[in-house]
Amino acid sequence: MERLGDEDAHCDINVPDTFLLLDSTDRMFERSLNGYNRLLSDHTYLNKDTDEEFLCYGYKADRCKEGLFLALVVLTGGLILLLLQWRPQMVCYLRKRRCSLNHADTLLLQDTYKQYSLAFIEDKTFPQSKDILPSSATTGESDDDSPTDTSQLTISHEEIKFRYFDHQHVRYIWNRGSQMFSKLKDLSEGTKCVKIQESYHGLSVREQKQKQVVYGENTIEVEVKSYWRLFIEEVMNPFYVFQIASIILWLCDNYYYYAACILFISLVSVGISLYETKRQSVTLHDMVTTHAQTIGVCRGEEEYEDVPTGELVPGDVITIPQHGCVMTCDAVLITGTCIVNESMLTGESVPVTKTPLTHQEDEEMYSPDLHKRHTLFSGTQILQTRFYGNSKVKAVVVRTGFRTAKGELVRAILFPKPLDFKFYRDAMKFILFLGCMAALGMTYSIIIYVRQGVYPMKIVVRVLDIITIIVPPALPAAMTVGTVFAQSRLRKKGIYCISPPRINFCGRLDVFCFDKTGTLTEDGLDMLGVLPIKNQGFCGVVEDPSTLEVGPFITCMATCHSLTIIDGELSGDPLDLIMFNSTKWVLEEPGKDTSKFDTIMPTVVRPCTKDTFTSDVNPFEVGIIRQFTFSSSVQRMSVITRTLSQDGMELFCKGAPEKIASLCRPESVPQEFQDILHRYTIQGYRVIAVAHKKLDPKLTWHQAQRVSRDKVEFDMTFLGMMVLQNKLKMQTKPAIHKLKEAKIRTVMVTGDMIQTAISVARNCGMIPVKDRVIIIEASPPDAHHPASIKWVTAETPDEGTDHYTDSDYTEDVHIDLENPHKTQNFHFAVSGHSFGVLTTHFPEYIPRVVVKGTVFARMSPDQKLQLIEDLQNIGYNVGMCGDGANDCEALKAAHAGISLSEAEASVAAPFTSRIPNIECVLQVMREGRAALVTSFGCFKYMALYSFIQYVSVLILYTFDANLADMQFLYVDLVITTSVAVLMGYSGAYHKLVPKQPPGSLVKPSNLLSIVAQILLVIIFQISAFLYLYYQPWYKPVKKNLDADNTYCWETTVIFLVSTYQYIASAFVFSKGPPFRQPIYINVPFLLTLCTLFAFSTYMLMLPYKPILDFFTVMPLGTTTVEFRSVLLAFSVGFIFAACILEYLIMDVKCTEKCLSSCSHCCGKGDEQNDQYRKIQNEIELSNWPPVGQVTYAALNEPHVEIEEELMRSHGAILVN
């Protein structure tokens, strides 16, 4: 038995070992197979599932293809090089061959917008050293599932070699282990807080130099190109290449004057464009460039050396100068304290206190976002430094160059998200249609000229000339006229735009999102009063906190802040200033502003009373020992203090009421806490709760400096609440009302409490008085329940309150007879927490929630961005208006983002307004609508102008004639250019209307309008020619094998009649209200039209021989007055017919409805744009949402859960 037991024991040991060995072998084989597959792979995805995701293909040089390419260059006269300029991917297709990424020397990158770019792989080598490259970058011992940690470097052989490429100022290095490229990382990713605190003591000169090879210089340089290089790049634009080809063609056809004028205008246009581009580049360069400076770098063991800031690398330990500096890198503080001006990032010039990094857990990872109170960001200004004893204020560099927060901002400006506006897509479709028409005209011309026996060379020139007629070279410039004028008008009103094409987007906005604080409401707060606790209950509002007895409540107000004295003035967060000033206490800091402070002398606060300064007894003084700075993620801040002549330390904490209450002992929180909080928040007041706790008497000062906040912020005593008022800006309510009148949906996206946000939304008119609000309370799953949603009706304020009874903005109650329970319009209010749960566990509800959501509270910056994208995904054109860095990403993502801040972080927003309120939104939208309508009008005019000339030329080609040089010049420059430019001079209409301008060029009404006008042109030109043909004195032009008959009656009649058609087209397509000012307001445009009409009439009716000779017109004086009068009648008749067609037929609502119905019947509707409307209709026709019920993620069905106390507190009605 013992032997059997031994055998069994032996088996028990060996069998698992065998399985372990097999499993290990399988894993090794799988890893080898994966690595082998990657080794052979010629493409991969980089930055997967991010905004910067792109597909990467490997290519390398091919001698055979290079030879063939050189032959193509010779055969095409170098024209194929233009193709490579416009289509970078052709470089790889024509000159290189596909290969594995491991052997590639060139990469073809395709982003998510199907745009291509090239990147060239480089190799660098340097002597070995520790901590330079990631182990996986050199050795190949990498786990496939783990990202490359490029902040760590290993020893390989005598030299380290690494491959990399740079794309949009981001470096990617080759990982030999995973056989793929990965983004170069730094200490901001995957680095533990404890490691930053304990492991970084400074790099040696050798290590720093070697890291510079990997990370590059610590600079943010915006290249300012020379005028010559800008000129070459501009001329390579397809538009100017087409211009050059057209000029050459006109010279070959002896149109010298016309070609010279177009060349001169093109050079002027190029010069203006180069000047503007250069000026913007210089402005951006000067804005982001930091002047060269030096900074102290630790070399270990308290050895310091001054080095240029451009040589800093991640891992360097720098010393911050006492008198401050401008940061050139992102660094995390490890010792000392800094007072920083972060207005560059936040737009707020309020000084911010930065404290040393602390870690709560050993595994806590450092994040610049989560630990921003400990991070000094590039571009921010250090005002002061404060340090302990003889030690220095030190920080560890975590990011450099374009990887810093400022660098990311500059990259966003240099490489903006491409626009995808339907108007521009339709414009390209229409140009292709014009190209097809040109092909038909060319075919017709070839047939006519071959029959007439014209010289082949002349046939080629005439046929190619058709292209320059039907696709006018000035078309792209004419389409931007409205945008240019709108941008100029906005600039005069203090609104600046860095992306002019965005102005057209503003004309099609459906919904506008607003931040609350500083945007809808004033920045400042007013202290309404405090609610201290006495005898386990609130003792009523105390309007003047300074009258409170000295105790924990007022001590908390005097100490729990991050205020500091700068230049003799108290500075800091506005809320902290209001709170502290209301106590009328005194704050003192030891020594001068920039001098050191020691542990024995912390910041001290004391009451400002007679006894404080005259009593012989020790005065009441409180020293602030430690600050736990405010963080939006924890929604609170706290301080550790010690009172003079008392033992032990105390903790004071303030923050969001619901968060503070959850950290306090339940018995210390009054039973009426929720009711009192609800009473104030529903009226729009901002409520801050305060709490207190006596700490362990054994806690020493050194322990207090190292303890983590979660070790002390619990079991506190609830002290009461402060109530502050955040008033609406006086312009907010009228602006919201105007947007509502224009049927523009308004949404609030804020970081404030949901009840406060609902109140402000009601007060400003976003939520009408009698509409109900449904709060979505979503909970994540736990051990006992799946994720759930409670649909709770928010309490409606009393009818008698002053905040909500403005009769000017009330709306009637809508009663749905089919769904009687829907007696009111409703709006969703969602907190950031609930929004996150919905996104994760109820994604199918997101479209409905964003369609009916009006208030989104407690939203983080990432959630604001996500909301904007969710709205866009269901077809909304979204605008966003905010004033802080928290809104920066959302501002960039919106179709039209307007920043009310002048911070550099807000420069990435398309619009920046010096108007400090939301009236700028109305200005931008009005100008956007005017610019869009102008662009449509200019495009339609240029299209019709092309067809008028196209019809004229084809008629003349038929009879072996053509327009003269000066006739082309008069039409193209004098008439078309002046009219197209001045057409955009009309200003925006004075108010927004519910109707939106059209967003598509291929909309049936637009196409029908253009086609109808073209038919009119053909009818009247042919009629005029037939009238000439039947004149008894008419003699057809003599045949000419050069096909250059210009001095003939056919040319004269067609030219004179067509001049009126150009003028009439400009008039009918330059529409005024409801999007632009009436045409009579645009005096230059109207005067130009009248002058052109008068000149054409003078030339026709009162022919003056020198003028006729100049324009190569036949002697009209030899004809009868009747003949000329009939031609004038034809011309005037066309003007009246065009106006009747455009204004009395095309603009009639009945016609628009019929065309719209036909479009939908044919299935031509834009399904994505109609998606949110379909969702709205579905909600209206259903009984959703299930108010008073609970929806579970597991069953995805509503269930009634009777919680009487909860429902009473929210005023909800249960629906079975």
From TrEMBL:
It is a multi-pass membrane protein. The chain crosses the membrane at residues 67-86, 235-251, 257-275, 430-451, 463-486, 930-948, 968-986, 1007-1029, 1049-1069, 1081-1103, 1123-1145. Residues 300-413 form the P-type ATPase A domain. Its EC number is 7.2.2.-. CDD domains: P-type_ATPase_cation (cd07542). Residues 131-151 are annotated as: Disordered. ATPase which acts as a lysosomal polyamine exporter with high affinity for spermine. Also stimulates cellular uptake of polyamines and protects against polyamine toxicity. Plays a role in intracellular cation homeostasis and the maintenance of neuronal integrity. Contributes to cellular zinc homeostasis. Confers cellular protection against Mn(2+) and Zn(2+) toxicity and mitochondrial stress. Required for proper lysosomal and mitochondrial maintenance. Regulates the autophagy-lysosome pathway through the control of SYT11 expression at both transcriptional and post-translational levels. This is Cation-transporting ATPase. It comes from Crassostrea virginica (Eastern oyster).
